[in-house]
Write a structure and sequence with these properties.
Glutaredoxin; five-stranded mixed sheet; elongated
Length: 312
């Protein structure tokens, strides 16, 4: 009886072990890597990604510390998530997001790389979230409009507005899909396409502010003023307009700059080219027909002249 009982309990144990692999994966050992005030937590199979994160931190920290005129305290956490952990973090991390900064927890969560994203995607995602962290340490994210927080992160992670982004804005303007800047506060609940438009709008608004600030030193002084007197007081002092008026000013600016780019719509270009091709074909047929008629007229004239000479 004892061997049978032991075999029974062994099978029960193996059954529950197979049913709950997540419990065991959750307790799997993690390695860590110190990088200045940051600690990078990762599983052994993610060591290469952790090394890249360390390199990104080494490059980004001097620039961000210089711009924000601040350093971050020790104890900052960067966690490289596995697929299982990514599912467990689903409440906080949207499916389309590559990484997420947890406000006031000083934690950055980085999802497993999406197919085709590569190391460049990891660098952009991490830099974006690092800007959030430095913004939080310097200014306190909670008191800032989210479009400014996201636009600032897009700007410092190397995003720009080229022809492709301008066409996207022009299509959104034509389709009346442009949202008010303050409506971007719900970006974490947006679909991927709507979130991309929200980030692009945020970037365009921050770049417009950058133009009004002029030198980076004025931008830095603006941040110092926000720390001392708050956003609502600092904004008109450094931009020359009250904050409630900025949304209309921004909308009029992007409309003037990008609305005409709707002409680069691929479908519109197709129909325009088709129309022009039809017109060109019609004109070519008309010209060819007229030439034939003239040729026949000349032949008839020459034939009549010959008959007149023959019967004279």
């Amino acid at each position: 009886m004892k061997p049978l009982l032991a075999k029974f309990f062994c099978r029960v144990f193996l059954f529950f072990l197979c049913l709950s692999p997540g419990l065991w994966g959750q307790d799997s050992p993690r390695d860590s890597l110190e990088s200045g005030p940051f600690t990078i937590f990762f599983h052994p199979e993610d060591r290469n990604r952790a090394v890249v994160v360390d390199q990104v931190l080494a490059n980004a920290r001097p620039r961000l510390e210089g711009f924000f005129r601040t350093t971050v305290p020790a104890g900052m956490r960067i966690e490289l998530l596995t697929g299982l952990e990514s599912e467990q973090q689903e409440r906080n991390l949207p499916r389309w997001a590559g990484a997420l900064y947890l406000t006031r927890q000083f934690r950055i969560l980085i999802n497993p790389p999406q197919q085709g994203a590569g190391l460049r995607g990891l660098e952009e995602n991490l830099t974006h979230e690092l800007v959030h962290l430095y913004t939080d340490v310097k200014l306190g994210i909670q008191q800032l409009p989210l479009w400014y927080v996201e636009g600032l992160a897009e700007y410092f992670s190397g995003e720009t507005i080229g022809l492709g982004e301008g066409i996207t804005l022009s299509h959104a303007l034509a389709a009346r899909q442009i949202m008010d800047l303050d409506a971007i506060s719900g970006v974490l609940g947006f679909s991927a396409n709507k979130a991309n438009l929200a980030y692009l709008q945020s970037l365009s608004a921050v770049m417009l502010l950058r133009e009004r600030f002029g030198a980076d030193s004025n931008w830095q002084d603006f941040h110092d003023s926000v720390v001392i007197s708050g956003w609502a007081t600092a904004f008109p002092k450094y931009t020359g307009m009250e904050y409630p008026h900025f949304n209309d000013f921004w909308y009029e600016t992007i409309s003037g700059r990008y609305r005409w780019l709707v002409l680069f719509n691929a479908e519109l270009l197709f129909w325009v080219m088709l129309l022009l091709g039809g017109i060109a074909g019609f004109v070519a047929v008309k010209i060819r027909t007229r030439r034939k008629l003239r040729h026949w007229a000349r032949e008839d004239s020459e034939e009549g002249n010959w008959e007149d000479r023959f019967f004279a």
